[in-house]
Amino acid sequence: MPAAALCLLCGVVIPAAVLCAEPLPRVAFPSGDPRRTLTHFSQANVSHYDIFLLHESEEELYVGARDRVLALTVGTPGSIRAKASITWGPTAEKTFECAFKKKSQETECFNFIRVLAALNKTHLYVCGTYAFSPACTYIHLENFTLMSSGRGQPFLDGKGQCPFDPQHTYTALLVDGELYAGTMNNFQGNEPIISRSLGSRTLLKTDTFLRWLSADTAFVASFSVPEDDKVYFFFEETADEFDFFERLLVPRVARVCKSDVGGDKVLQKKWTTFLKAQLVCSQPGQFPFNVIHHAFALPHRDRGADIYAVFTSQWQAGRTGSAAVCVYRLEALEEVFKGKYKELNKESSRWTVYGGPDMNPRPGSCYMGPSSDKALTFMKDHFLMDGKVSPTQGRPLLVKTNVTYTRIAVHETRGVSGTTYRVMFLATAEGFLHKAVELPRGPHIVESVQLFSTPEPVKNLLLSRGKGILYVGYSSGILQVPVANCSVHRSCAECVLARDPYCAWHSLEGSCQHVHAAADM
Ligand SMILES: *[C@@H]1O[C@H](CO)[C@@H](O)[C@H](O)[C@H]1NC(C)=O
Ligand SMILES: *[C@@H]1O[C@H](CO)[C@@H](O)[C@H](O)[C@H]1NC(C)=O
Ligand SMILES: *[C@@H]1O[C@H](CO)[C@@H](O)[C@H](O)[C@H]1NC(C)=O
Ligand SMILES: *[C@@H]1O[C@H](CO)[C@@H](O)[C@H](O)[C@H]1NC(C)=O
Ligand SMILES: *[C@@H]1O[C@H](CO)[C@@H](O)[C@H](O)[C@H]1NC(C)=O
Prior knowledge:
With about 525 residues, the protein is mainly beta. Helix content is about 10%, strand content about 40%. The strands form nine sheets. It has a five-stranded mixed beta sheet, with no helix packed on it. Strands 7, 8, 9, 10 and 11 form a five-stranded antiparallel beta sheet that branches. Strand 3 (about 50-55) and strand 4 (about 60-65) form a beta hairpin. The protein is globular and about 75 Å long. This is Semaphorin-4A. It is found in: Membrane.
């Protein structure tokens, strides 16, 4: 391996091992490069293509934008066609109220779509900020129209499911007809909430008074493993369990149980299973990567899932800072949730480890039976775990300087030799897409694609596995990016050295081809 040999050499000559550890993209495509053509879609007067929902057939893509929901036909790679569109903007009255509350009529008093979920075969569920007055409704898929589109008919109240402010972070997940959401629950934006709504069971939420979440909580992702009783939320918040001279942010994972129905006398209409724990992503001698931007759960047959998360550090913001990818096994999360609880010592105002007797069933576990008042009372102040979740191998999988990763998607693919590879697609705050493959010796950045001609953050990144395509959402449109263009590699050596698991050299035809195409020969 020439790269490894070089690394060893420079380790001897230059003490800063950082130079060696940092993977560089093998190929970089500038914006508009004909070797990496991107299919673009946008509609006149429509902006903020923030939310994607891919139909399971991968033939249709639903998009939530500003005052608009679109249905796009995407079955043929290289083509995106508008099939239908719904205009759903706030009423003049709502816009006036929004402006009256000192919000901008130019940038804020619109309906930014934030939730778009496939409720069943015939209906989508959709929520938007609706000029700082969140609203939700249903969409008929048959004719792509809003359900309550009749004049004067009120939409459903979206409070607790959708943020008020388009700047606020959010995450939502539909499981078995119920919506699990993490968002801000008020206009001021200082009351975060994790809620469960829709469906026929009791509405559940986090307790604000007990401060289960810090006022600045920023949600980045949520997921659940099918056939498992748990839903996980990933977020960022100010930690108050440390004595620290400045505001300290920590990345967290929280867990609730699907079987939770809330308490009877204690914790009525509140989660009785809410637990949270700290995520760790750090390497020796460096500032910890403590700001989480996004997380992606890659399902795993035996261990449930591996969670890939992207971070930066609070102490090195901007371009000169670095970004990290850390991977957590679901088992590692579960181990921490099975461990010791923390509790706040009322006299000293310090967080200590709970040393009292164990209870059976364990409070906060996904136990289906009724919980005693004693167990529920315990849960009111024992929601923070003492243990921290460490990444696999105890360190980041990838560290890259001078970049902020805002989104991640991971694809498991089979190379030409039958080996399974994991490919990470990382979108940056400046509008680049890095494709990195995990190799035994460490990650290798196969390519970097500049998505836009002027720098701006990628808002959404969605992988269409079946079609081998990525969808990128940003302020003024949608891009369709094929996972690879193997024909840019002209020779056998180039094709092999690219170490792109999607590509293989076809010796008969003398060309570098997509693995599926090559395998079909
Ligand atoms: C792939 O690369 C080849 C060779 O550079 C180029 O002719 C072709 O247009 C590219 N295809 C795409 C989809 O970018
Ligand atoms: C876009 O907005 C402008 C100004 O409001 C309007 O004149 C134009 O007709 C709109 N275009 C479309 C396609 O809706
Ligand atoms: C889908 O959900 C909608 C809204 O709750 C409901 O009206 C409709 O009957 C459901 N359709 C099916 C096929 O279950
Ligand atoms: C759309 O289809 C639904 C369900 O079939 C129907 O109730 C509704 O009236 C239709 N809306 C329009 C505008 O045709
Ligand atoms: C950081 O990236 C910018 C472009 O995004 C580039 O101009 C600059 O030279 C880079 N700095 C370093 C130290 O790599």
